[in-house]
């Protein structure tokens, strides 16, 4: 089976359109249609429903899509490894980083890595850990930072950072005079939260579930500066990593009475090929945190 029709097939399945698939592939639309017809003839199966310009996968197409994506990942991994062995690739690192770490922890690490490896291309995506994990599993990223306690079987991971989640309040908030904050008191307050899919929100939802409480979320945003601004103005409280709060004089950081710690890991696909460029990045991150790779 030729690999090119499988690429065409997965793009049509992704876009539910022959025309948009052709645009994504930078080929003529008739070439995509012809490739799909030949693939269907070879398999003696109909892979797409075609009705009134609406395209959707048949049951057989759904089954093939799983195999096609796995085959294409393997082909891409093999091509990358062979290029590296021939010395044809300068190397690229595509890494996903959650918002808080992308803003406060990783900038100096990224700059230092680029200084050490000036010939490597570095592409950084900032999003919630849920989205990053999905992008990693779909090979849209090479590496991603995820919460260590939630590493799925499909991923390999190395822990590199343990950081405490702190309660963030304005300086004139009643909590500001306390030494710590009980979970029950925290959930009595109106909260400012990241949307679902961010590890910040996962922590709060997990704590709420364990306490039998429903969070009172007054504001929900993925913009970290906006969260801090809302808290400073007294319109709610939040919980953020200690590193985010340590240099902000307008916010008070308080630990939970029962401290909440997060173990963060850098992860990649277990069944994928980790290029030399990506291995160099993993080693560099572990080196910066004093973690020894085993």
TrEMBL record:
UniProtKB keywords: DNA-binding, Transcription, Transcription regulation
PROSITE patterns linked to this entry: HTH_LYSR (PS50931)
Pfam family, any one: LysR_substrate
Full protein name: Transcriptional regulator
GO cellular component terms, semicolon-separated: cytosol
Organism from which the protein derives: Marinobacterium nitratireducens
Alphabetized GO MF terms: DNA binding; DNA-binding transcription factor activity
InterPro entries named in the record: HTH-type_LysR_regulators (IPR050950), LysR_HTH_N (IPR000847), LysR_subst-bd (IPR005119), WH-like_DNA-bd_sf (IPR036388), WH_DNA-bd_sf (IPR036390)
Domain HTH lysR-type residue range list: 1-58
Record keyword Metal-binding present: no
Family: Belongs to the LysR transcriptional regulatory family.
């Amino acid at each position: 089976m030729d690999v090119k029709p499988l690429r065409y097939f997965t793009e049509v399945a992704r876009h539910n359109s022959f025309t948009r698939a052709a645009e994504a592939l930078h080929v003529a639309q008739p070439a995509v249609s012809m490739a799909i017809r030949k693939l269907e003839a070879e398999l003696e199966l109909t892979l797409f429903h075609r009705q009134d310009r609406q395209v959707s996968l048949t049951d057989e197409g759904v089954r093939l899509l799983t195999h096609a994506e796995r085959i294409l990942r393997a082909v891409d991994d093999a091509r990358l490894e062979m290029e590296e062995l021939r010395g044809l690739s300068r190397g690229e690192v595509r890494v996903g980083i959650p918002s808080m770490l992308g803003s406060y922890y990783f900038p100096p690490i990224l700059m230092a890595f680029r200084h050490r490896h000036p010939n490597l291309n570095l592409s950084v995506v900032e999003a919630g850990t849920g989205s990053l994990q999905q992008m990693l599993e779909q090979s849209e990223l090479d590496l991603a930072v995820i919460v260590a306690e939630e590493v799925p079987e499909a991923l390999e991971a190395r822990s590199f950072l343990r950081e405490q989640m702190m309660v963030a309040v304005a300086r004139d908030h009643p909590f500001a005079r306390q030494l710590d904050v009980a979970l029950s008191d925290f959930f009595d307050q109106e909260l400012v939260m990241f949307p679902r899919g961010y590890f910040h929100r996962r922590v709060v939802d997990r704590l709420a579930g364990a306490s039998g409480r429903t969070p009172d979320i007054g504001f929900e945003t993925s913009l970290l500066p906006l969260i801090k601004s809302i808290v400073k103005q007294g319109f709610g409280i939040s919980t953020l990593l200690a590193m985010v709060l340590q240099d902000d004089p307008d916010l008070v950081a308080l630990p939970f009475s029962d401290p909440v710690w997060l173990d963060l890991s850098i992860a990649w696909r277990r069944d994928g090929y980790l290029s030399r460029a990506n291995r160099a990045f993993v080693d560099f991150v572990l080196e910066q945190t004093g973690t020894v790779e085993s």
